[in-house]
Structures are given as C-alpha cells and as structure tokens.
C-alpha cells in the first residue's frame, strides 16, 4: 500500500478556473501562473486546449496537482463551428485547408443523422496532429516530419450534440462529451459521413465538470493581488466523492498514513475533510465500511 503525502500552505493550494484566450498554448498559461508562485510550488493543467481554442482551462496549484486526474475525468462541454465542404490535415482551420471540389450541400436532416451517429459510446480515431505518443514521440512531431502516423481507434463517450445553427457551409454545434474526445475528429467523421468533408473552424470549451466559462478568470486579470481570491478549494476537484469529516485525532492518523476507524460507505473512495472544512486527502473504505486507508494526503 502506498500513500502520497504533500505538505500544504493554504495560500498556494487550490484550483484556478481560467478562460484561455486564443493564440497561446495551455503550457503558456501554466507558465504565466507559475511566475506568480513561490519557486517550489507546482502548477499543472487538467486538459490541454489547442492554441486556436478558447475557454475553460483548469490549473491545479500546489498539493492540488495530485488531483489533476480527477478533473481530467470530468465531463466537458464545447461549442464549435464546423466548416463543411473542406478538409484539413489537422482537421481544423490551423492546418492546410483543401476545399472539396463541387461539394454536395447536405440537408439539415442528413446532418442530424450524421451527428446522431457520433453520440453514445463510439470508436474514434484521434487526429494525426495530436499530443498522443507513438513509440515515445508525440504524434504531431511525427506528422510534421512527414512520417506516417497510425493511431488506434479508442472508445470515447459523447453524451449530446445539439445543432445551434446551420447555414452552408458552417454548422454550429454544442457537444457534451467525456475525457479523451477530440472535437476535430467528430468534425472529420461527420464530413466523411455527409460526403462533403468538414473541419473544425472554432472551438470554445465552456465547461469541465463544475468549472464553467461563466465563472472563469482571464489570465491577464491574474496577479499576486488577485491570485488568492481566484483560487477555488481543492475539494472542487472531487465533488462527487462521499465526504467523511475527521476529528483532530483522525487528522493526525491520516497525516501519518494510518488507517482511520470511522464508518463510511463500504468499498468507496472518499474525500477526507479536516475540521476547518479543507480537503485533507482521499482514502479507500474497507469492505465492512468501518475504516479508511488514506491514499492521497494533501497535508
């Protein structure tokens, strides 16, 4: 059994919900945040946005970086404009765009059918220009070098695709999906199904789980004076986990990685809450629901 323990300073622990502007990478935004932090405090984002894309970029600070995987698993909502009648090597407008010769103009009903085929649990092939690794190298590096990139289809979940507007050649959609879904791939596959080709022209991420664009902070508005008030509690990274309140004795046991004798939902992973309301860590409940083994301890 292993227990991850990270000491914490409340001033440098939590989650930033930022509204990424166009033209910068997710790493650029993380680096900007990092310049506001003490040298040894880490920051990491929970889900990349391409430079052309805008919207919600969640950045975990300090010990909360241990919770990035939980944010990454949250459902996401995107708004996108697909350009029909053209294709691109990157499946978006940043690539080499090739108009489809004499494209057919699909009807709205045909578009609905094509989108319906992209919902539910679907097999999706990621774009060749993606950050996925092939034999230790990024797929986009291989593609840019002119090498053949073969990525295996994988199962992703798309909960909903709603048409917001359609006027040839542009189709505006809103999409709810799970982790690992590429909106560019949806555009590509819809274009192929319609026989006219398609690419993703714009992309805005409006939600990751409980983090919405409406509540997001512009990176340019973030400085040392506004940083603390922009931080959300680490507990927001695990909103669906059962919560177990600990007394001071329980806190002491958890910090030492010792099993805590307390009743909780049998077999569940739970959020361990300190007396001051902060997330102390995560733990696994035994099969009888009588004790908890700490797994991640924020300190």
Structure description:
It contains 7 helices and 19 strands. With 299 residues, the chain is of the alpha+beta class. Strands 2, 3, 4, 5, 8, 11, 12, 13 and 14 form a 9-stranded mixed β-sheet that branches. The longest helix has 12 residues, at 183-194. The two termini are 18 Å apart. The model is unreliable at 1-8 (pLDDT under 50).
CATH architecture of the largest domain: 2-Layer Sandwich
- Could you spell the SSE succession in H and E letters? EEHEEHEEEHEEEHEEHEEHEHEEEE
Structural class: alpha+beta
Strand content: 25-35%
The averaged pLDDT comes out at 91
The proportion of residues forming helix, as a percent range, comes to 10-25%
**Span from first to last CA?**
18 Å
Topology, element by element:
Layout: E1 4-5, E2 14-20, H1 26-34, E3 43-45, E4 54-61, H2 68-72, E5 76-84, E6 86-88, E7 97-99, H3 108-116, E8 120-124, E9 133-134, E10 137-138, H4 139-144, E11 154-167, E12 170-177, H5 183-194, E13 198-208, E14 211-212, H6 227-230, E15 243-245, H7 248-255, E16 260-261, E17 269-273, E18 279-285, E19 291-297
Parallel strand pairs: 1-19, 4-13, 15-17
Antiparallel strand pairs: 2-4, 3-4, 5-12, 5-13, 6-7, 8-11, 9-10, 11-12, 13-14, 16-19, 17-18, 18-19
List the keywords.
299 residues, alpha+beta, Pseudouridine synthase, Archaeosine Trna-guanine Transglycosylase, Chain: A, domain 4, 3 domains, nine-stranded mixed sheet, six-stranded mixed sheet, 7 helices
């Amino acid at each position: 059994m292993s227990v991850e323990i990270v000491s914490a300073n409340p001033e440098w622990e939590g989650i930033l919900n930022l509204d990424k502007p166009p033209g910068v990478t997710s790493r650029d935004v993380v680096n900007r945040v990092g310049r506001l932090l003490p040298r040894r405090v880490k920051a990491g984002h929970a889900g990349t946005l391409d430079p052309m894309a805008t919207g919600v970029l969640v950045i975990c600070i300090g010990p909360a970086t241990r919770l990035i995987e939980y944010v990454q698993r949250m459902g996401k909502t995107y708004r996108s404009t697909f350009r029909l009648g053209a294709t691109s090597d990157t499946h978006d407008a940043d690539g080499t765009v090739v108009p489809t010769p004499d494209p057919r103009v699909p009807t709205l009903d045909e578009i609905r059918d094509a989108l319906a085929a992209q919902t539910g649990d679907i097999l999706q092939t990621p774009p060749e220009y993606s950050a996925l690794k092939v034999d230790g190298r990024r797929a986009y590096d291989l593609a840019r070098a002119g090498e053949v990139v073969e990525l295996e289809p994988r199962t992703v979940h798309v909960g909903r695709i709603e048409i917001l507007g359609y006027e040839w050649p542009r189709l505006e959609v809103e999409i709810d999906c799970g982790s690992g879904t590429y909106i560019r791939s949806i555009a590509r596959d819809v274009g192929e199904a319609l026989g006219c080709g398609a690419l993703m022209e714009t992309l805005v991420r409006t939600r990751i789980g409980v983090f919405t664009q409406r509540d997001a902070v512009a990176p340019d508005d973030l400085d040392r004076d506004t940083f603390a008030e922009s931080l959300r509690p680490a507990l927001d990274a695990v909103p669906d986990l059962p919560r177990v309140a600990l007394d001071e004795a329980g806190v002491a046991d958890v910090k030492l990685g010792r099993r805590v004798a307390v009743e909780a939902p049998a077999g569940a992973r739970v959020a361990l809450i300190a007396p001051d309301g902060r997330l102390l860590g995560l733990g696994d409940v035994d099969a009888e629901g009588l004790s908890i083994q700490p797994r991640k301890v924020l300190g």
